[in-house]
Amino acid sequence: MLLAVEKVTNTSPVNIGTEEHIKIKQLAEMIFILTDFRPKALKLDVTKPIGDFSRAADLSRTRKVLEWEPKISLTEGLRRTVDWYFSTHQQEIVRKTLKTKLREN
Length: 105
Fold this sequence. Notes:
Blueprint: H1 2-7, H2 24-35, H3 60-66, H4 74-88, H5 91-102
């Protein structure tokens, strides 16, 4: 992030992520495993238009401007993020409110 602040001189975005393609449903499953949370059901909103089957960051601008490459996998980054979140928040409160936070209104 500091590298982006130093090298990006305008407001154009740079992706800091992974080029690993992943389906949103797969990402949700990874989060469920890492958080030890399992919803009773995973409901997909089929009334919305169908989007991309998978997502991955385009890092071409990041490579050019920041000369940066990701050094950890999506799985490891997600694990570290969940670990950090649980270490900085009360786990019981997080577990009790996770269902509400994951639900889209």
